[in-house]
Amino acid sequence: MGGLIDQAEGGKWRPEKVVDQARQAWQESMLRPIDELAHSLRRRDPADIARRAACELDGQSLHLTYWNETVLLPWPGLAAVRAADGKPCSTFDRALLLYYLDCADGAPLADRWIGFRELPNGAFYHQAYQGYSGNRLAQAFGLQPDAFDRAAQALGGKSVIDLGTSAFSFQPLPRIRLAAVLWPGDEEFAASGAVLFDAACSHYMTTDGLALLGGGLAGRLVRFAPAR
Q1: CB burial class (10 A; 0-12, 13-18, 19+) of residue 188?
Q2: Cis peptide before 76 (omega within 30 of 0)
């Protein structure tokens, strides 16, 4: 993960390019592991997988919510499709879904927020992660906190008062909760931002997968940023 995510051009972060490159590299590297994951999951009890991952087993399919959309994974093929239109999910999304199902151990949400550096092996990549998550939010919304609030609400974010006046939680998967936080800037102080994790997230996803989910949340929010 680090080789691509550590990249910068001209001394300045190009977060959109870095995340896209990391996503593409991860997708390509996951083609064989995806098959291995699916094979491993097929050897398990689907009802137990559903219980641990907090999803539903309806007939021969696992049903779960992914970024506010219902996704179906028919058993035993585990080819992910969107419930709304039956279209297949991308290789990238299917990989994240299978990793989620494979990692899920049934641990409850911790209701405690941690930074990326507190995830397993997260300290080494914390600075890179901050560059394409929290820093990206600060650059897009730092002087326009109202626009950040509107973007978060448009994506279904829920206010998290304990983290600040501009802080919202999101649940891209049933047991993975993220928080996007903005501390607005002014003429004297620079804005800052962060994308945090519920402390139980590592029970449901690898650290590099969580990095991509956190970067993905920042990207989704930035799409709503006012034009400069």
Answers
A1: exposed
A2: yes
CA distances from 68 to 29, 64, 157, 213 (A): 27, 9, 11, 14
pLDDT at 27: 54
> Is the CA virtual torsion 39, 42, 44, 49 positive or negative?
positive
Q: What is the pLDDT of residue 4?
A: 30
Structure pTM?
0.86
Provide the token pair at 45.
């009890």
The residue ranges of the chain whose pLDDT is under 70 are 1-32, 228
Instruction: Judge contact between 91 and 27, C-beta under 8 A.
Output: yes
For the segment 170-217, what is each residue's pLDDT rounded down to a tens digit?
Answer: 999 999 999 999 999 877 889 999 999 999 999 999 999 999 999 999
Q: In the sheet where 176-183 sits, what is the strand order?
A: 113-114, 192-198, 176-183, 167-173, 158-159
Residue 223, helix vs strand vs coil: coil
- Is 131 in contact with 13 (CB distance < 8 Å)? yes
CA distances from 189 to 17, 167, 183 (A): 28, 19, 10
Distances (CA, A) of 2 to 6, 8, 116, 128, 217: 6, 12, 14, 8, 19
Q: Is 14 exposed, middle or buried (0-12, 13-18, 19+ CB in 10 A)?
A: middle
